[in-house]
């Protein structure tokens, strides 16, 4: 294994060292004047005011939505330990106004400022004049977003509460800024946590929350697919929609209505409708298919009052392999796909909703895209950094005159912690190209998988997506990296920002060690003594030292930041710490497995005449215990993190994998070597890449020789 110097030097993988250098240059060339997310378009910082007597906040126009914005601002500041109150008197005051108010008009005129036409829907102006600050908008949303910027300008530092005054004109680059939240494959958020998501994202000017559903909504017309405890009810929907409205967030339901339908088609009742038996796609030629979609969509439209309805229709990989084989053979898969999409549109159109669909299939057939109705919205998605740009995902719809949203991804799926090294580049470039080509929205995606992704690990990418959709052009990653910790967690030390960078560095090291997209979940579950595990070990161990230093440094930084002040959103910090611990444990598991194998080999050589002092097996039991306790600890931390955000549904499916690994290493630790029966064994220095995977936890009630142990765990070595 390649070892670095023993002194306290921090390690960066070469690729990330270059990135860090570039980020530093970007920070020097385009440094943000203030740590704000998103960054306002126009900002002129003013003096910092001390808030010794607190701050008085009012909305004198009497509008209920503006009063809500004022009350929400007061509640937030109070929660942060700042003396905020509803009133019009005090040394420092904030006044929320519409631009139609005479006082607002006079203040704007005195500064020669105005809300231009592009600012009418969601724009705002902040003006600090001595001890009075004005938040002025043309709409309730504009006033609310101005108040969210004020939340970031008012903070608590070492000297107490302060108000960083500023003159700001701000409005969004994209009209629709949202997230797609997978609640269909594993974790199902509680209603209270979904409310928390909506409220918190609105602080960063997100206005769309789109739950992605396969079988996680209870339909009265089709009650069978919804799983008990794993689905939203009608009352859940009503409560969430009403709650989101006050934060200017629209709930856009996604119901897969073509592909990704296995959790419905697995039921025998729907057997005639599937492309293949119990498969994942509807068969377009079956009359019952569009009838099922009609029942779903009609009921969905009645639950969600917003203007949009997302029908999915992505990754219809089975099309043409079953009941539609003849139609696809005659007309081609693309035409069969587009024709069924048009049928779905015919269901949606009378309900007065704009239909959104995933754009991955139609994009490859621009001639057929032009036949789609012009009022649909194509959601183009791609999750890689793509240095060449994203024009090919957008151009077919732009050329056809179809409205487009861009959909980047957080790289959270199948990873022990989101790979933000890739995700931030993906978001930055995709949104940039979308704005250039006229895309009107961004729908950042959160996908879950069987490894049990945690939503609380996603806030870093979600906030950058919010910034990229609001800010014009290419958003600066460097500015965001240096603002997130203070803005989201209230960390003034910069250590949370550094911890995020450490985890990105660890991901890069994992990628350089052969794990294409960083710290993947399969590494966490992988048996290091299986054939795949031995191959992986050979690639991973040379980078293991650097990876562990990054992960452990992240844990230390989180703890130090928390010790310095009372931080906000601590559940997100726990998810971040868990990600770092899982990264660290991945490498240690391979290191410990290597140590066990090496020590057994050394003991065998000593038994057969080698000149070695001491007992090579003295510490072996420690390595076994480390792996048992490691999986056990992470089991407990994961269960706690899950409970902070999700319903119990599906939890035990994931905890069972922790339990299985605890049992595996417990049983392996009981395998005792008896060298009096030992036969000559190969002179092994490491794990053999030709090993055969073990069939499962072994029965180790009897002592075994080294040769027997090796055959059981590592397989016979190749000549």
- The structure class reads alpha/beta
Assign a percent range to the helix content.
40-55%
Q: How far is the N terminus from the C terminus?
A: 23 Å
Strand content: 5-15%
The residue ranges in which pLDDT falls below 50 over 5 or more consecutive positions are 1-11, 15-32, 676-696
CATH architecture of the largest domain: Alpha-Beta Barrel
Largest sheet: 9 strands, parallel
CATH class of the largest domain: Alpha Beta
Q: Total helix count?
A: 23
Topology-level CATH name of the largest domain: TIM Barrel
Gyration radius (Cα, Å) is 29 Å
As for the number of domains, it is 3
Q: Mean pLDDT, nearest integer?
A: 90
Q: Identify the CATH homologous superfamily of the largest domain.
A: Glycosidases
Q: Care to count the β-strands?
A: 17
Question: Could you walk me through the main structural features you see in this protein, from its secondary elements to its overall organization?
Answer:
The chain has 719 residues and is α/β, with parallel strands linked by helices. It folds into 3 domains: 31-170, Chitobiase/beta-hexosaminidase domain 2-like (Chitobiase, domain 2, 2-Layer Sandwich); 176-477, Alpha-Beta Barrel (TIM Barrel); 503-713, no CATH class. 45% of the residues lie in helices and 13% in strands. The chain contains 23 helices and 17 strands. Strands 9, 10, 11, 12, 13, 14, 15, 16 and 17 form a 9-stranded parallel beta sheet that branches. Strands 1, 2, 3, 4, 5, 6, 7 and 8 form an 8-stranded mixed beta sheet that branches. A hairpin with a 2-residue loop joins β5 (124-129) and β6 (132-137). α21 runs antiparallel to α22. The longest helix is centred in the last third of the chain and has 38 residues, at 570-607. The protein is globular and about 95 Å long. Residues 1-11, 15-32 and 676-696 have low confidence and may be disordered.
């Amino acid at each position: 294994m390649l070892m670095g110097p023993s002194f306290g030097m921090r390690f960066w993988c070469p690729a990330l060292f270059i990135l860090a250098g570039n980020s530093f240059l970007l920070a020097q060339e385009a440094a943000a004047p203030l740590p704000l997310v998103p960054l306002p378009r126009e900002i002129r910082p003013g003096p910092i005011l001390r808030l010794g007597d607190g701050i008085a906040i009012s909305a004198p126009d009497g509008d209920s939505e503006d009063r809500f914005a004022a009350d929400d601002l007061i509640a937030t500041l109070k929660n942060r330990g700042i003396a905020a109150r509803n009133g019009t008197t005090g040394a420092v005051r904030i006044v929320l106004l519409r631009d139609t108010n005479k006082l607002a008009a006079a203040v704007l005129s005195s500064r020669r400022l105005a809300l231009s036409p592009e600012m009418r829907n969601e724009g705002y102006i902040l003006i600090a004049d001595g001890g009075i600050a004005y938040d002025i908008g043309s709409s309730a949303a504009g006033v609310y977003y101005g108040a969210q910027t004020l939340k970031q300008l008012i903070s608590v530092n070492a000297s107490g509460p302060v108000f960083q005054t500023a003159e700001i004109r701000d409005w969004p680059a994209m009209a629709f800024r949202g997230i797609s939240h997978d609640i269909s494959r594993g974790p199902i958020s509680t209603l209270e946590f979904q409310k928390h998501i909506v409220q918190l994202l609105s602080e960063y000017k997100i206005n769309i929350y789109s739950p992605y559903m396969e079988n996680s909504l209870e339909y009265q017309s089709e009650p069978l697919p919804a799983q008990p405890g794993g689905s939203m009810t009608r009352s859940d929907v009503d409560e969430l929609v009403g709650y989101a409205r006050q934060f200017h967030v629209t709930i856009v339901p996604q119901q897969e209505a073509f592909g990704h339908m296995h959790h419905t088609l697995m039921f025998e009742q729907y057997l005639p409708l599937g492309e293949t038996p119990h498969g994942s796609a509807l068969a377009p030629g079956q009359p019952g298919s569009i009838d099922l979609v009609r029942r779903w969509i009609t009921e969905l439209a009645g639950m969600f009052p917003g203007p949009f309805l997302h029908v999915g229709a992505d990754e219809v990989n089975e099309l043409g392999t079953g009941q539609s084989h003849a139609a696809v053979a005659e007309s081609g898969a693309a035409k069969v796909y587009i024709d069924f999409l048009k049928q779905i549109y015919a269901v949606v159109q009378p309900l007065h909703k704009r239909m959104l669909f995933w754009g991955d299939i139609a994009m490859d057939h621009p001639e057929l895209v032009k036949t789609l109705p012009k009022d649909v919205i194509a959601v183009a998605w791609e999750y890689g950094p793509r240095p060449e740009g994203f024009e090919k995902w957008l151009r077919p719809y732009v050329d056809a005159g179809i409205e487009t949203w861009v959909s980047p991804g957080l790289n959270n799926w199948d990873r022990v912690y989101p790979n933000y090294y890739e995700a931030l580049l993906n978001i930055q470039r995709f949104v940039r190209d979308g704005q250039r080509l006229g895309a009107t929205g961004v729908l950042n995606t959160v996908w879950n998988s069987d490894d049990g992704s945690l939503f609380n690990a996603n806030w870093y990418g979600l906030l950058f997506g919010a910034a990229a959709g609001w800010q014009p052009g290419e958003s600066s990653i460097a500015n965001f990296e240096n603002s997130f910790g203070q803005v989201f967690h209230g960390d003034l030390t910069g250590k949370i920002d550094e911890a995020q960078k450490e985890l990105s560095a660890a991901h890069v090291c994992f990628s350089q060690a052969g794990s294409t997209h960083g710290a993947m979940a399969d590494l966490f579950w992988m048996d290091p003594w299986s054939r795949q595990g031995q191959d992986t070990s050979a690639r991973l161990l040379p980078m293991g030292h650097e990876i562990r230093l990054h992960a452990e440094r992240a844990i230390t930084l989180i703890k130090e930041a928390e010790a310095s002040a009372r931080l906000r959103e601590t559940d997100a910090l726990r998810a971040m710490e868990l990600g770092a611990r899982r990264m660290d444990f991945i490498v240690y598991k391979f290191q410990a497995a290597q140590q066990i194998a090496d020590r057994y080999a050394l003991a065998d050589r000593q038994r057969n005449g080698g000149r070695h002092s001491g007992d090579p097996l003295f510490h072996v039991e420690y390595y076994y215990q480390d792996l048992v306790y490691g999986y056990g600890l992470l089991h407990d931390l994961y269960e706690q993190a899950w409970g902070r955000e999700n319903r119990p549904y599906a939890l035990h499916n994931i905890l069972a994998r922790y339990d299985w690994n605890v049992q595996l290493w417990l049983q392996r630790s009981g395998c005792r070597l008896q060298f009096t029966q030992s036969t000559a064994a190969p002179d092994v220095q490491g794990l053999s890449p030709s090993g055969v995977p073990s069939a499962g936890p072994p029965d180790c009630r009897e002592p075994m020789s080294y040769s027997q142990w090796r055959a059981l765990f590592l397989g016979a070595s190749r000549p």
